[in-house]
Input
Amino acid sequence: MPLLVAMVALVAVVASACAGNSSNDTNGATGTPVQGGTLDVGLTIDITSLNPYDGSGDTTSMILANLNAQLFKDYDHKVVPALAESLTRSADGKTATVTLRKGLKFSDGTPITPEDVVFSIEQAKAGSAYGSLYKEIITSEKASGEDKVDLTLVRPTPNLEALLSFPRAAIIPANFGGKSKSEYLQKPVGTGPYMFISRQPGVSIQLKKNPNYWDSGKPYIDTLDFQVFNNNNALTSAFQAKTVQAIPFAPEASIPSLTGANIVNTAAAATEMFFINGRTGPLSDVKVRQAISMAIDREAIVKGLRGPGDKPTATFVPASVLGSAHPAPVKGGDIEAAKQLLAASSYKDGATIKVIYPTGDDTLANTVQAMQAEVAKIGIKFDLQALDQGAWVNDVLGGKYELAYQNISANDTTADTTMQFFIASGAYGGGWSTDVAKSALTKYQTATDAAGQAAALDEFQNWLSAELPVIPTVWLRPSLVLKGSVAGYQGLDTVTQQALPFEGLWLNKS
Output
């Protein structure tokens, strides 16, 4: 079937199936929470690590969010205390004192001390992906009394509480609880709503209720059983057979067949985009990059292949953290204009470009194939190659690619980690300058109001739009699919799935 015909057909299927599904963005379950039971959760991508400071990927972030807690947390679009009771600042803003809640314990019953917080912040600063985010702000940390930690800062940081709410700022036992790091990561001890029980790589991860969780009365469900499936069809079948009750990051291609499900569209905290290696070849020419971006019809792709929460975009940071910054105008689908741009480039006769993308997401694969058909109209050939997640990450960070397609998640309530990862990864191994990103991030972090943050994001986006080191295509609002037996999902549309603790869910009595 021709691609465009397939896209039209898929739209009809989605429209038909949605009539049998119920969307619960604002009308989640109400009533008295029910304690107990096991929630079976289906995944198509396994976790990469149990290390909260280095683990990567949406699935990994979600599992770690259930195992760990931070000093602060995001709740209903606000940053509120979690393990911390409060944070106070010195007059010059360069010292912050965190006061811990009384009676805190790790999942194994060991008391949480200021020394644990100091060690955890040191680990966060040493993290491979976001370590510099903390290292460039916090110069030192020390215990101060029985329940306090003093943080010395490089500069006043109004959004410090938000930075301390990120999953990469998890609180773990000092010195890994007396074990080696590798031993600890085999069975980590955390502060989250659930505690680690077992893992079979590529098969399953099992967590159970943390009896020492700081938020008394939660979680409601006793056990979380995460099952990894080889493909979307197997996952869909398991959901229909009721052996799986929840699907986070549900593949959009599968949603039409999940009739009768409760579908919660969580916060749009990710941007799907092309990463570009601009060192040599066709992509070193800005006109080629512009021609590719102009040829992509984002509106048609979202309408034909994506879910109701997704939106076309040419803006780098996700919608959930854009704030009052101005999104870049969405252009594209103009084949004649794209041809003119290519004709003005050094590759007026076209080019073949290798595109790598990760396996495990049929919707992403279909999107790449749709864009392959569009750029072919201007004389650009995409040589598509699907790689497993680990190989894809290694090739991108090593700069061993031409074009790479994937999404980048905010994982939290601000744009800090999105921008920081651009910096820390060397613009995704693409050889681009990160000077503008560094300047914009500093301005963003020191801004005292929304207007200041917006100006910083606009500065970065204007540079991105001119240089095109990346080509954003879609803002993602991932779907969390739940069986009718799962309740307590009210408010999940305000949080990201990447940092989604299951503490507020419960199972209805059968």
